[in-house]
Specification:
- One of its GO terms (molecular function) is DNA binding.
- The chain is mainly alpha-helical.
- The chain contains 5 helices and 2 strands; from the N terminus they run αααααββ.
- 27% of the residues lie in helices and 6% in strands.
- A two-stranded antiparallel sheet has the order 1-2.
- A hairpin with a 5-residue loop joins strand 1 and strand 2.
- Helix 1 packs across helix 2.
Length: 137
């Protein structure tokens, strides 16, 4: 089975599978679940954690068996069983494309304003008159 046929069987695009096999992308949980659904004889523990045997005891005539040309570039899928951590192909953490922004320090300056003083109070009455009161200094 070719990689394109496998991608079609599990329901992903051939380019997505190619990126996973080349190590450019890691498989998402959704892709792992699609592989497990299409190939239920593959152990979920093996797919997720690389632990235990690759195939479970389920035996079916329509199972896909390992084809070296399909998974040569991805050491996660090997016929020998789970890959040792020292031989797994991991994505390298790359430096960011853009430099981080310079930290800008913002200062807030509080200016004291003099206290307000009452200079005049006016009281208006309903008959149209008013009185003015001024504080004594």
């Amino acid at each position: 089975m070719t990689a394109a046929q496998f991608a079609e069987k599990i329901g992903i695009s051939p380019s997505s599978l190619s990126h996973i096999l080349s190590g450019r992308n890691n498989p998402s949980l959704e892709v792992v679940m699609k592989i497990h659904k299409a190939c239920d004889y593959i152990s979920l523990d093996w797919l997720l954690y690389g632990e235990g045997q690759m195939e479970t005891d389920v035996d079916s005539d329509n199972n896909i068996h390992y084809t070296p040309s399909l998974f040569d570039e991805n050491s996660l899928f090997t016929p020998e069983g789970p890959a040792s951590p020292e031989y797994r192909k991991e994505n390298e953490v790359k430096a960011p494309l853009y430099p981080s922004k310079e930290i800008v320090r913002e200062e807030i300056k509080y200016v004291e304003i003099p206290a307000k003083k009452i200079t005049e109070i006016r009281i208006f009455f309903d008959n149209g008159t008013y009185e003015t009161f001024k504080p004594e200094n």
